[in-house]
Amino acid sequence: xxxxxxxxxxxxxxxxxxxxxxxxxxxxxxxxxxxxxxxxxxxxxxxxxxxxxxxxxxxxxxxxxxxxxxxxxxxxxxxxxxxxxxxxxxxxxxxxxxxxxxxxxxxxxxxxxxxxxxxxxxxxxxxxxxxxxxxxxxxxxxxxxxxxxxxxxxxxxxxxxxxxxxxxxxxxxxxxxxxxxxxxxxxxxxxxxxxxxxxxxxxxxxxxxxxxxxxxxxxxxxxxxxxxxxxxxxxxxxxxxxxxxxxxx
Length: 249
Known about the structure:
Layout: H1 15-27, E1 31-33, H2 35-41, E2 50-52, E3 54-55, H3 60-72, E4 78-81, H4 106-114, E5 118-121, H5 134-152, E6 158-160, H6 168-177, E7 181-183, H7 209-216, H8 221-243
Parallel strand pairs: 1-2, 3-4, 4-5, 6-7
């Protein structure tokens, strides 16, 4: 989220933080692109000065606070939508003290498309895909993709696994459903195809401009990957609360 409101979780930045981070990257000579463009650019000349911003969940705060900043500088990014929660509150999450946050609606999501942003899937109901039956898993993957494509008139090729969790069964079903790339956070499964376990680095409320700059320049990656893995582990607490002690399949 890009939200000024207090929340016990740290998986957000304030609007002021976000604006400073974007401006800092621009001042350092970075160009912005979508995730697909970033991956396809690879190691071509100038690729080391590219950065791809992505937002999981599709919260309304991204529409309210991040989109205007990106528009002001003519920049694009990627947003992953939970198709089943578009226009709804985030009841999939463990809401501390009853604090709820809204997801953007379809009209708001359409504005991202018009602004040239890339749209990906974050599943249908934000459940840990590795703990679902084959039927539920197929439904999460195919239904979310189909709904987003029909409502927004885009082709959905990217999926961000809820809670960053995937395995051999999940990526194979993703490929069958028509996805080209899958994204994790800190926990990269080396035995899986690289295009379906693309690692990202989270930017959080506790990040200073120093740590943000280190992430931007890909310095001290071992340390930030460790921090990210801790964050991933903590996110599994929500899985246990919402889905129960269901073993991975």
